[in-house]
Design brief:
This protein is an alpha+beta fold and about 190 residues long. Helix content is about 30%, strand content about 30%. The strands form 2 sheets. It has a 7-stranded antiparallel β-sheet, with helices on both faces.
Length: about 190
Amino acid sequence: MPEIETLRLRLRMPSPQDVEDVALLFADPEVMTFIGIEAGTTLSREETENALAKMNEFWARNGFGRWTVIEKESGKLIGLCGLRLYEGTPELFYLFEKPSWGKGYATEAASAVLRYGFEEKEFERIIAGIRAGNANSLKVANKIGMIYEKELNLYGVHCQCYVVTRSEFEPLGGGYIFQENNRHVDD
């Protein structure tokens, strides 16, 4: 499965060794404030194991999915970022630990994921469902060039749908390495 490297981050496949770190993410009510059908609902370790298994099954079925996000300097897992499907349309997903908020990691990872989706998978459009009140996700979406499209009932949750198309997308600088084919892209 492919990996992505950015200036500060490495996005790689979830592994069984990630359960404890991801369980910490899913157990933090602040991190989960805008995630899930019932916003703020945390997940147990067992639920985390199931979620990671489903992420890997999704990758095997679709050839894309969600990565774990590793801060290169520390080697620490700080979040998840990637793509899932909503009614056949790729949907951007990102979730980061609270100590990583405000450092530009979500923007850096999300931009790299969009680039992967448009350049490697050749998607024509990618959406993001953002709950009302999630100002941080809205900032990330705006920084990576996504624009408001419409209100949307996403997985049973009322969201604002943001979208960017392949022709509109302008990747952030910094260069990326798509490890699947060892192609390095400099801006």
